[in-house]
Structures are given as C-alpha cells and as structure tokens.
Amino acid sequence: MAADNLARSRNRSDEAHQLTLTFASSPDVRAAASTQRSKSPPAPAAAAVAPAEAAAPSTKASRRAAERALDDDSTEATAPAGRKRSGRNGKSGAVPATAETMAKAQREISVSEFFAKNRHLLGFDNKRKALLTTVKEAVDNSLDACEEAGILPDLEVSIAQVDEDRFRVRVRDNGPGIVKQQIPNVFGKLLYGSKFHRLKMSRGQQGIGISAAGMYGLLTTGKSVRITSRTGARKEAHYYEIQIDTRKNQPTIVEDRTVDVDWPHGTELEIELVASYNKGRQSVDEYVELTAIANPHAHIHYRPPTGDPVDFPRASNELPPPTHAIKPHPYGIELGVLIKMLHDTKSHWLSGFLSSEFSRVSARTGEEICARAKLNPRAHPRRIARQEAETLYKALQAAKLMAPPTNCLAPMGPKQILAGLLKGVQAEFYTAATRDPAVYRGNPFQIEVGLAYGGDLGPEAAGETDSGANGSAGRSESVSSRVIRFANRVPLLYQQSACCIFKSVIDTDWRRYGLSQPGGGLPQAPLLIMVHMASVWVPFTSESKEAIADYDEIRKEIKLALQECGRKLQAYVNRRKRQKFEGERRNIFERYIGEVVTACAALKRVNQDDLRRNLLKLAQSVTARADETLDEEGKVVAAGGKPARGRSRKPGKRGAKSAESLAPASEYGENTVVVERQPAPPESLLQ
Amino acid sequence: MSKKAGAARRDRKQIGEKLAGLAESVVEAARKRQDPTVRIPLRTLSNARFNKARRIIEMGDAKQDRRFFNLGMAKSFMQTLLVASGCKVLIDEDKTASIRQIYYRLKHTIAGTNEKTFNDQSESDPILEDLEVAINALREELHVFADSRGSIAGNLTVVSKGDTIDLRRMGAGGMAIPSIVEPDVFEFRKCDARFVLHVEKGTVWQRFNEDKFWKEHNCILTHGGGQPPRGVRRLLHRMHNELKLPLYCLLDNDPWGYYIYSVIKQGSINLAFESQRMAVPDAVFIGVRSGDFEEFGLTDDVKIDIDEKDIKRAKQILNYPWFEGKKEWKKEIELMLKHGFKMEVESLLTKGISFVTETYVPQKLKDKKAWLD
Known about the structure:
- Chain A contains 18 helices and 17 strands.
- Chain A is of the alpha+beta class and 687 residues long.
- The model of chain A is unreliable at 1-63, 65-92, 462-477, 625-666 and 678-687 (pLDDT under 50).
- Chain A has five domains: 5-110, no CATH class; 119-312, Heat Shock Protein 90, CATH 3.30.565; 330-398, Orthogonal Bundle (Helicase, Ruva Protein, domain 3); 413-570, Ribosomal Protein S5, domain 2; 577-651, no CATH class.
- Chain A has an eight-stranded mixed β-sheet. In chain A, strands 11, 12, 13, 14, 15, 16 and 17 form a seven-stranded mixed β-sheet that branches.
- Helices cover 34% and strands 15% of the residues of chain A.
- By secondary structure, chain B is an alpha/beta fold.
- Chain B has helices at 12-31, 74-93, 99-106, 121-134, 202-210, 213-217, 230-242, 255-266, 292-295, 308-319, 327-339, 355-366, and strands at residues 37-41, 48-51, 56-59, 63-67, 97-98, 144-145, 151-154, 156-160, 163-166, 175-176, 187-191, 195-199, 219-223, 247-250, 284-287, 304-305, 341-342.
- In chain B, the strands form six sheets. In chain B, strands 10-7-13-12-14-15 form a six-stranded mixed β-sheet, with helices on both faces. Chain B has a three-stranded antiparallel β-sheet with strand order 9-8-11, with no helix packed on it. A two-stranded antiparallel ribbon of chain B has the order 1-4.
- Chain B is globular, with a radius of gyration of 23 Å.
- The chains are: A alpha+beta (687), B alpha/beta (373).
C-alpha cells in the first residue's frame, strides 16, 4: 500500500522520480486515486503529508505543468469521497501578493485535468504516438486480464481509418470481462485500478493508460469510449458509452444497455481518436509484432488500417505462471512511505508492524531493528510516525535482510523466448537466457535475453573470414543489429538510447563473440537482441513508459545475460565462418574443374566425363577432410592464397551444410535452436 | 641443369608429347583419387646458385608441387594447364604467338561466374615461364615469343628468315632485335666488327648511331630498352661466343644499371635455367662510374638524389653471392651510396652533345683499369 501524497525537499532527482513512479499507478478495478500535489517549501525536510490515496507526479516537468494548470484552474477540485485535503503553501503568481490572496487561487487539481493538459506525459505527444499508445494500453490491459483469469489470450486488434486523420481502434479479448458496475470506473477514471496498490508483476502499473486513451479520444473527436463486456456465457453483455469528466475525474455514462454478442466472455473496447498511421519502426505494426514475440501464448489477430490482416498464431499453450503480490521490502521504501505506513497500519506494536507490513522482516529481526533504532518494540506505530520515523528508517536500511521473495515474478523463460522469436523472426540461430532474480532498491527483478542471428535478418558482415573479398556486390554492406526491449512483456518502442537496456547492449563487447562493433555502437551483424525485464516495479524514466532507468544492478544483470547468450552465439558464428570458408573452397575447386577438364582435352584425348566426375568427387572429399584442419576460432589454418571470388557466398552450399543441419542445437549449449534455411538450389557450374 | 644449350632442336612432336603428359598425369591422379600435381622447379633467389667456375647463375634442384586441391594453388594449377593447352595448339598448327597473344587467346570468363581465367598479362607470363621449366622446354620450342625490344646496328651482316640484312645500312632506327634469335631465324653471315657496345636505352643508342660510333670504332651497337629481354641477351651471348667479340656495357650509374649489367653478365634469378645460353661472364662495365663526376668535371646539375628504394636495392645487390669477392664493385656501389646521388649516361651530355661518343667512351675503352668486372 503505497499511495500517498507526500512532498519532501530531499529531492535528489532520481529519488523524486522514484516517488512519482511509486505513486502514479495502474488501471482496473478498485480504489480511485486523485491527485493532489502539495509543494513543500524549499527549505527543511519534513513534509506535508496528504492523507488518502492521492498521488502526485513530481518530476520537474510535471511540477512545472502542475503550476501551469493551477493558474487557470477555475473549478473547484473534487476528490473522491473520504479524502481530506492538504493545505498548500506554494507560490504562484508574480504580482506581489499576500498569503491570503494566494490562498484564494490555491486549489486542488484533478489528475484528469492535469493529464489532459500534459498528455505527452502519457504518450500522446503526437498523432502517430497517440495511435500507438491507445492500442498499447488496450492490448496490455486485455493480456493482463486474460492471464490473471488463467485464460489463454485471444485478441483481435483492428484499426479502421474513418477520416484523413481519424482512426477507430477496436480491441477485443476473451478475458473474464468486467462486472457492470465497474466498467465506468475502469474506463472513465484516471488512476483507477487494481494494479497500483500491490507489488506484483503486471503490464500495467498505474491505472492511467486506458482511461487516458479514452480521454484523448474524447478530447480530439468528441466521441465516447465504447465498451462491451460479458463475464460469462450465461450472462448478458453490457454496452456502455462513457465520457470522462476531466474536472471531477469521474465517468459520465452516455449510454448503457445490454446487447447480444457472439462471444461468451471478454471485453471489447472502441475508441475513436485523431491520429496518424505509419508503417515501420515505432509503428503500431511493430508494437503488435513485438507483443506477439513476447507473448507466445497469445493469439493476436491484427487488422491494420491498410493492407491485409495479419495473424499471429499461438506458439505456446503455456500461460505464464501466476504471480504473487509481495509486501514492500524495507530497502525499497522511502521515508515518507514509511511514515504513511506507520500511520495507516492496524498493528498496535512497532515490532508487529515491521514483521507484518514488510517482506523479509521476521519477528526477531523486527525486535533487532527496534533495538538498533533505540525504540520500544511495544511503541505504537502512529507515535513513531510523528517523532522517530527517521531513526527507524535508518535502522531499517542498516538491517541485514534477505532479498525480497521472487515468486512475484513471472519471467518468460528461455523456452517461451525461443518460441516467441521462432514465431516472429526468420533467423538461423536462436538462443535465450533467463537470469536468476536480482534486486534493485528492494524491488525484485529478472532479466532475460534472446538472440536471433542470420537468416532474413540480413547477410553476414563481410570481411570476417575472407580478407580480400571481391566480387559479389552488396556483400560488403553490413547490417546493424536491432535491439527490442520489453518490460513485463510490453514492448518499448521509444527513447531507445535513453534506456538502460540499450546502454547495456552497446556497453557489451560484442567483438569478443566474433561480431564487428565499430565505434562502440551496436554490433554490425544480422542480429536481433531481445531484452526483457520482469519486475514488480519497472523503473521507467517517464509515465509514458518508454525507457528503463539506468540502475547499476539492472545494467549488470542485462550485461551478464547478454554475455551468456553471446558466448553461445560465438560458437555458432565460428561454425558459420568455418562452413563459409569450406563452401568457398569447394566453390573454387568446382569452378576450376571445368577449365581443367577442357584444357586436358585440348592436350590429349581424354574421357571428359570420367575426368570431371573423378575431380568432383575429389573436391568433395578434400573439402570434407579440411573441416578438421581449422582451428577452434574458426580461423583458416591452411595458407590460402587467393580467397574466394565470384558469386555464391552461401555457407556450405553443398555437402557440408546438410551434415550440419542434422546436428543438434545443443552443441552450442542449452537453450539454443538452429534453423537451417533452405539453401539456394545448386546451380550447375560445370555446364 | 638442362642440357639443351648446344643440343639440337627437338622436333615438335617431342614437345607436344611432353605437354600431353601433363594432361595424362591429371587424368591418372584423378582416377586414383590423388591430388593432380604439376612439379615446377623454383624460380626464386633461394633456388638460384652461382656457379663460380662457369661464372653464371644456375637453377637449383628445388621444386614445388603445384597442386589442384590447394586453395592457394588451384587457380595457378588451372592456368598452367590452360597455357599448356594453348601452346599445344600452336605446336600442332605450327604457328607462333607472342606472350600477349597467348594471354588473349586463353583469357575468358569461367563458365557460370564473373571470374576471368587471367586478369592480365602479368598473370599469364610467369605461368608460361613455369611451364618452360616444368617440361624443360625453351620458349621458342613452345612456339611462343616475346614482344621485340632493343635495336642493333653495326658492322655485321645477318640472314633473318631468308633475308640478308646489312646492319651498316639500317638508317636512324637500326634493326629491331627479334625475340627469337636462334641461328635458323637469325644467322650471322659476315662480321668485321671488333667488339660489341651495349648501351642501356634507346635514346643513348640513338646518340651513338647518329654519331656513327660503330663506323668510327668498327663495332656493333646494341641496346635492350632497360632490362634487356631474352632475345637481346641471347643475341649478345651468341655474338660473344660465336663471333668472339668482347662485350662492353655503358649503363647508368645507379642500382638499376648495376643490375642490368649483372643480368647480362651472369644471368637472372628468374630465368636462371637460361643463363647458360644467355649470360656473358666476360662482359665488362665501362661506365658510368661514380668517380666520373670528378674525373670529367661534371656539374651538380647532373646529380640525382638517391632515395630509400635505391639504397635498399644497392644493398641487396651487394649481398648477391655473385657480387661476393668483387672488391671493385663493392667500392663502386659504396661510393655511390656515399655520394648520395646517381647519374645517368645522359649526364655526360652536359659536356657537349657528342662528348660521350667522341671523348668519354673512347677514353674508357682505352683505359682498362677503369673497367669493372
């Protein structure tokens, strides 16, 4: 239970940031939260603690925005029932004013209003991104709902263009549906949901996304959000048209009736919005494609505005294991949070509070912590909240505690990663690794990496084996590898270079694994690098959830996972180099056989067919033998004079390759898959 | 060592059979699942021996197997057989072709590729030389000749392909020295000359010819256009041995000139197998010498600074076994290095257009002490 409104002057930007993340939260059912930003005077610590489940963004940008919003806020802010309001002592205008005149202008702002003005914070900066964010929020919610209900997701995503810059997004899932009463709240209220108040791994975290999408649609087109939901085959489906009252952060129901649908359970959402549709990178197409990779257990039917519908079939019938919510770990909380928890707890004794509200704090360690803080274990938590919270906080941080439990995490696992990559990418070599759980700031997380190499990803970079490569145009152009990032199975498409994942990838020395990496950038290779971070709390750098913050612990884990996969890739790359070399060798011999036979025939009467056949057999046995004369690094042992020239660089075009294809993938280690793509039909060189 | 020098020309059939033998060995090897191989004597410095008694460079016994199923050799193996087949056709049809014509005849795109059998003539020329040593046949026996280079004029009458040619009546250009100068195509008829003067380049040769130097001094005048080709060297050899004429060389005072002299005198590394029918161990270097700069009072204008390459080449020459024990030569080269400049024959023209023909060479010819061996 973290929702809290607190402001502290101790604002290291990173901490302030963490606060935001901790406070803003997720969609779905239950408790609403409205925002109240109380600005603390710039001086000492302490803080005005606002009660209730209010959350406040506190990045610099949002603070500025909040101030702006404040100035033209004309309505009386309404908070959900049961909320108190904190006083505020900020400064607003420039004109000399008294505390009293200022007080008149000071009032609460609704979170809906705030985001209506600052929609870029939620990923609605531009038309193109608006479409992506809308689809993304809807799909994330659907997948979360299905998984939580133990249903293999079946999604239908369709985008229809209704006008030049107007699109209608419709997402239907086969999830459990939403009970009638909650529909308006879930879709018509910001920061309303089930995911915020728990430490559990899920796609959504904040409860802003889908209602923000609805709000954006309403703002740009005036059209309501349309929801149809059915909770079971025997139940009736409900149809709602909802608008959001931004000032009150309350849904307004425009239409409410029961309808007939041909599906037993699930939810269908329709939002019309001003947007633009593009193809390529950072498009909805890419998002759906990547989602399919990260969710091999989902079947997604995608109907883009133009072109043919795409079907992403289910590649695995295994649902991700259910995850458990965990209590916060003492290392991961802030002082303010601790104060709030002390205030709200039902425990009467301090030691009992510690052991029941935190993970990894036993009754005994609770007592020890109290002793270290020189506090009475029998003290009432609420008293501590007022007086000795900081001492207690320090004692908590100093205590030796086990890492938080990790059953809150549901990593994809190497098999699912491989299934996803195999489904989504036509490559030749696949490998995956899942690290053991680790912890940053008291939050458990787990890093997974998948690599796909070769095949349709592009030609191998030239100049790896053959130094004097001439001939075959285009070979010299090497392709850059591509990084795909996921957080809790959600693809991250924007702000790649700001993301911890991307930084870790370029920070890794790929040359060690036989790839070229000019200028310390991405490796130049036909390589797809997939990195997934699973965590109860993914530290995004902003509300729009585009990049993962750069924590040392996270970066270290990512690099270790990349290295583990890199080593397996290296074995394959070396083998490929060897094959390529052998193939070129054989090619040379076969290419010259024709000339030699003709020359012999000119010198002497010989049986050309016999000679050709014998030489061909020799060529094959010679190149097969030579497999063993290459060293481990795949370097050429034989002194090659002139390297291969001419066309086909297809590795091991004949003979050698077919033998390779039968080799089990395990030769490159665990969790690797080799897919032999169909080699080009052998051309007759000798006619 | 081949014994062909004095030997009579073998008939075409014999050479043709040798070539066919190459094809046979390929067929045989392929049948036995062995790597087809052509054994080629090495034409490298390491396989060149200086025969002190005969004072010529000879080819050693080292041989290299050129194998088909070896990545570094596959192409040259194919090229060797290709050149062999090209020569076989010439022999069968009794026609001759220049080495450039051979290159053009055999160059084509390999079926199904964009690769050429030969990229340029510099690939086919050494292959041809390989073939000569591999089957121990002379180039003319393979019906191949090089482009003509070098000229001759002087007190000599020859018969070439049935035409009697008086080399005193060759006008300004002289007679081009053919690539093949064997007696059947280039027969000495009448010679009154007392010696042969070989100069390095055509321009210098022109000076001497224009000044009728050969008439004045009753000699034969030749040049080889820089490093003399085989035809020129063979002709010098024949004139020296058959007409008993001493050979004097007038070359530039630089490493290049030294090496030309060395090739004329004891043969080259590359064509060591031909030395015995080409080298003239008694040849004499009369100039230009490093000391001439002072002796003839030349001006600084004639100096050409030596560069890194010159120094490297000069040291290389000093290390050749056949320069061993030649103290005069060592002094000469070291003096050039010490001076730090080199001189061309043309430098003598600063003293007057005909200084070289009227003063320099006559003086040098008289002064045997100034000769270099």
